[in-house]
Every structure is written in structure tokens, then in C-alpha cells.
Amino acid sequence: MGVVDVDAVRAHLTARAGHAVVHEPVYALGISAAGAATVTGASGATEFDAVVLAAGASTSHLAAQVDIYTPPLLAHHVRFTFAVEGSGWHSWIDKPADGLSTYQHEAGPGRWAVGGQVDPAATAWENGRESAVAASRQVISDYVAKALKVRPEILDSLYCTTVPLLGDGVEFRRNGPILAVDGDNLMKLAPVLGDELAAAAAAGGTPSVDSLAEPGED
User: Fold this and answer.
1) Residues 191, 198, 1, CA angle at the centre, nearest 5°?
2) What are phi and psi of 108, to 5 degrees?
3) Contact predicate 206/172, CB 8 Å
4) CA 48 to CA 20: how far, in whole Å?
5) Among candidates 106, 96, 202, which has minimal Cα distance to 143?
């Protein structure tokens, strides 16, 4: 999402991890009588000393199985890419007092991506993806035609789910050997989250937002 090349990052990390990464869906989580974390996937159930749960839109469903609460509400969101002329377009986020709040960035030569804070009533989960995308397309296309004065011809789009009202927030919750992390736009925080979550999983602790903000030791 955004200016982070998620596909390239995923490919790099997967290559570095090698055989340690098992690609299969997880259906259930549990905690055994001995206090171990149980993960049930396509190949069956396996016990682990510790589990970090970071499953995006599926986090709430899995967390609830081990009595961990994470916000269950989801919303639809989509970013659209338009054609622009010339160079010098980079990125910005604007939050005007009146009008549409947007985030925008260059998506390649002559390509400009725009996402906006569309009316929550239009992007609510219960409306369905198709309806939410159509409403967002109309709002963003109107904005682009008026504010950016470029052709409102959509070259590409990127859909995702979001957690309403959380913004760029992050939260941590633990039950026994299972540590859950949830939030929005967490890819931006991936390097620091990875270190904190790995340390917490090994030590049995729970990170906090304050601990993320503390400067590291030289």
C-alpha cells in the first residue's frame, strides 16, 4: 500500500527466511492444557512455545478463539491511479478544513495514485466491496478532475481493508503464549514492529506504543 513496494518486500523477506516460512492457511488457534500455543492449518495442528498473530483482516476472528479482543469492524478502501504529464510529482497528504482528505503519490512515470477519506457510510463493510469501490471511484474521480486538473481516466486501482477510526494506530494484546498485534497501515512500521514482536515473543512480554517510540541504544 502507498509508496511501500509490498510485493518486493515480501519477496525479499521470504527469500531470506528460506525453508523457515511455511505457506499455508491457518484455520484455528488454541492454547493447550500445558500452556503451549496450538496452530491448526492445512497440514494439521502444531504446538509452539509462542505465536505472534498478525493476520490482517483475519486477526479478529483468530484472536477471538483464544479470548483476545481486537477491533472486529472493517471497512473497504481503494486507491486509484491516474495519468499525469511531466515530472516533479512526488507525494503528499492533505487534510483540508473543508473538503476531501487525501493521500497521493507517484506510482511510476506519468502515473499518480490517489486515495481519500470517503464517507464512512459509503465504505462500510456491510455495503459490500462492489458498492464501496463504486462510491469511492466517483468521489476520487470528481476530486481529481477538479483539484488536480488531470484526466479522470483510471489506469489502475488497489483495494484493501481498513480498521475504521484506528488511523495509523497499533495495539498489542496477549493471552498466554499468543501475542496479537492489530492496527492500520502497519507496513509502514514493519522494521520496528518486527524487532519488538520478536523480542516480546521470546521473552513472553507485551510491547507498548511507548516502547516503540523510545530511542534505541547505540
Assistant:
1) 35
2) 145, 170
3) yes
4) 14
5) 96
> Phi first, then psi: what are they for 169, rounded to 5°?
-75, 160
Segment 159-178, tens digit of pLDDT: 988 888 776 678 899 999 99
The side-by-side arrangement of strands in the sheet containing 37-41 is 26-31, 37-41, 44-48
Q: What is the pTM of this model?
A: 0.78
Residue from 178, 174, 173 nearest 38 by CA: 178
CA-based diameter of the chain, in Å?
A: 64
Alpha-carbon separation of residue 132 from 60, 94, 135, 144 (angstroms): 22, 22, 5, 18
Report pLDDT digits (tens) over 95-116. 888 889 999 988 888 889 999 9
Amino acid at 121: A
